[in-house]
TrEMBL record:
<feature type="region of interest" description="Disordered">
    <location>
        <begin position="60"/>
        <end position="79"/>
    </location>
</feature>
<feature type="region of interest" description="Disordered">
    <location>
        <begin position="112"/>
        <end position="135"/>
    </location>
</feature>
<protein>
    <submittedName>
        <fullName>Uncharacterized protein</fullName>
    </submittedName>
</protein>
<feature type="compositionally biased region" description="Acidic residues">
    <location>
        <begin position="68"/>
        <end position="79"/>
    </location>
</feature>
<feature type="compositionally biased region" description="Low complexity">
    <location>
        <begin position="121"/>
        <end position="130"/>
    </location>
</feature>
Length: 177
């Protein structure tokens, strides 16, 4: 069983162990069962390793493709927004100059009607009816810090009258200074 070698006794090989266990059938059966279980586990681990390597190759391919797409997107100019964002306009930066003379006065933001234009009744011209009704359109101005925006608004049939300013009458404060 032990092979003698010039350097010393040799370690028994698997064939020596199997030859020895032929006389011990219970131990031989236990060893064979252990070897079968070990072989099954090794096969399962090899299959899992192969699957993991395949998935890794897929992910690397996807990542490489995504990196190419990201690089292409970075090279293309960003699309310009066509919509007007009112919140953004409200937070628009003020003029860079601190010179108050260059700033618009409040009265210049939106023109007020002249005194001659103010009247409680606004005359309305009759509209001639034609075969095709076209919606009337009026223009309203939205005044923001940095610019004025003209927005077309469908006109209504109701007439708007200018508000008549009332005289300010402060409350009686008595003997307060």
């Amino acid at each position: 069983m032990l092979a003698a070698n010039e350097e010393g006794p040799a370690v028994p090989g698997i064939l020596d162990v199997l030859h020895y266990l032929e006389n011990e059938p219970v131990m031989l059966h236990a060893l064979q069962e252990f070897m079968n279980i070990t072989q099954q586990r090794e096969s399962l681990l090899n299959a899992r390793l192969t699957e993991a390597e395949r998935r890794l190759a897929e992910y690397e391919g996807q990542n490489a493709q995504q990196e190419v797409e990201v690089e292409e997107m970075e090279e293309e100019p960003a699309p310009q927004e066509l919509e007007f964002n009112i919140e953004e306009a409200e937070w628009a930066p003020l003029p860079e100059s601190d010179d108050e003379a260059e700033w618009l006065a409040e009265a210049e933001w939106a023109p007020l009607p002249e005194d001659s234009e103010e009247s409680p009744e606004v005359p309305v011209a009759p509209v001639e009816a034609s075969g095709v009704k076209e919606p009337e359109e009026a223009v309203r101005e939205i005044v923001l810090r940095s610019r004025t925006i003209k927005v077309p608004v469908p006109a209504t049939n109701t007439t708007l009258a200018a508000a008549i300013p009332e005289a300010f009458r402060p409350a009686d404060l008595g003997d307060l200074p």
